[in-house]
UniProtKB/TrEMBL annotation:
Record protein name field: Amidohydrolase
Family per similarity comment: Belongs to the peptidase M20 family.
Gene Ontology molecular-function annotations: hydrolase activity; metal ion binding
SUPFAM superfamilies per record: Bacterial exopeptidase dimerisation domain (SSF55031), Zn-dependent exopeptidases (SSF53187)
Keyword Transcription regulation (UniProt): no
Cofactor(s) required, per the database record: Mn(2+)
Binding note for cofactor: The Mn(2+) ion enhances activity.
Annotated Mn(2+) binding sites: 103, 105, 139, 164, 364
Keywords, in A-Z order: Hydrolase, Manganese, Metal-binding
């Protein structure tokens, strides 16, 4: 079956690229993907599968039933875009101003649609069921995964697999890692309020900018002086809104930022120390504060046994387009695939997609692009795992 599947996917490579380019030209933001969801649902019309729409919002769940006993494997692809103005100059660049597929989700959906179509054609050779999770809103908390799970997308599912194409990894490379592979995340907004006044009379005011500046520096000591040096964490102040006039002492400053950690324990410690520093500012500067601190995507934990299956299956397959299979380092970004991994044994791995000219821009950059050869690799890699899944043995 595996060889036949590979040949069918090769014959459909041009269609994968065609779909990717259409989606790239028509991106939609998280929670607003109505046209993309309709495009995906229309793709399955007339095919021998069960299609459920409006799952967790714009999510789509496709079930391919072999009619034979066996376990159920879910395979996931996301399809939302980002609020970025594209600067690639591609002939199929975004037609939606200020919106761009700058993370590869167009490619994820393109390879998954053609893989799913091919699996439907070959379902008599499968066992059990394959559930295709077309997920919206990966980029924006609370994310699309958690809502799809609440709507039952994992009912009856035994395991979940996911792929992310990576512009910073060489095309032909597939990377995996067991255990914690992507960070958990929190986001915060804090308003620090003092007492406004005239620049000539600071003694009659309480400068919120001074207090907020102390806060910006102090929170970095959480990473340098409160975390075990062997733990991983980061705090980023992404916005400091203190704009005013040259001779006016600001009465309030608003800050926004981002927290990442590789364990839930580290994430809890950072939040504890974060709040402690704010409480200290109250005593130190006589300010007040209003804090909105939200933990969202958990640490993404790959199941050890399933990830070993991913690595060994791909190594045994000898897929010619895959030149290297490596155990990679953990990745700093966060991923709401982590919610699936909290519910079912799961594995999330990477397919290199560095452009052929070697000029790569990171994900979320306005010039981000991928090598479209990576999409066939992704389809073949996931297809191989589906074909071999019937032989997977849990320890």
């Amino acid at each position: 079956m595996r060889q036949q599947l590979m040949e069918k996917l090769e014959a459909k490579q041009d269609r994968i690229i065609e779909i990717r380019r259409y989606l790239h030209a028509h991106p939609e933001l998280s929670f607003q993907e109505e046209n993309t969801a309709r495009y995906i649902a229309d793709f399955y019309e007339g095919k021998e599968c069960d299609v459920k729409t409006n799952i967790g919002g714009h999510g789509i769940v496709v079930t391919i039933d072999s009619g034979k006993p066996g376990r159920t494997l879910a395979i996931r692809a996301d399809f939302d875009a980002l609020p970025i103005t594209e600067e690639t100059g591609l002939p199929f660049a975004s037609k939606n101003p200020g919106v761009m597929h700058a993370c590869g989700h167009d490619g994820h959906t393109a390879y998954m649609l053609i893989l799913a179509e091919t699996l439907i054609e070959m379902k008599d050779q499968l066992t059990g069921k394959i559930v295709v999770l077309h997920q919206p809103a990966e980029e924006t908390p609370p994310g699309g995964a958690i809502a799809m799970i609440r709507d039952g997308c994992l009912d009856g599912v035994d395991h979940v697999l996911g792929i992310h194409v990576m512009s910073t990894m060489p095309t032909g490379e597939v990377a995996y890692r067991e255990g914690a592979i992507q960070t958990g995340r929190a986001a915060f907004k804090v308003k620090i309020a003092g007492l406004g006044g005239h620049g000539s009379s600071p003694h009659m005011a309480n400068d919120a900018i001074v207090a907020a500046s102390e806060f910006v520096l102090a929170v970095q000591t959480i990473i340098s002086r409160r975390l075990n040096p062997f733990d991983v964490g980061s705090i980023t102040i992404g916005s400091f809104d203190g704009k005013g006039s040259f001779n006016v002492i600001k009465d309030a400053v608003e800050l926004e930022g981002d927290v990442r950690a590789m364990t839930e324990e580290t994430r809890m410690l950072i939040e504890k120390e974060f709040r402690r520093i704010l409480d200290g500012l109250v005593k130190m500067f006589g300010i007040t504060y209003d804090l909105d601190y939200k933990n969202d995507y958990p640490v993404l934990m790959n199941d050890d046994n399933l990830t070993a299956f991913v690595a060994s299956s791909l190594q045994d397959a000898n897929i010619p387009e895959i030149t290297t299979i490596v155990r990679c380092e953990p990745q700093p970004p966060s991923e709401d695939f982590a919610y699936y991994a909290k519910e079912r044994p799961s594995s999330f791995f990477y397919v290199g997609a560095m452009p052929a000219n070697g000029v790569c821009y990171p994900h979320h950059h306005p010039k981000f692009d991928i090598n479209e050869a990576s999409l066939l690799i992704a389809a073949k890699a996931m297809g191989t795992l589906v074909a071999d899944y019937g032989d997977y043995k849990e320890e």
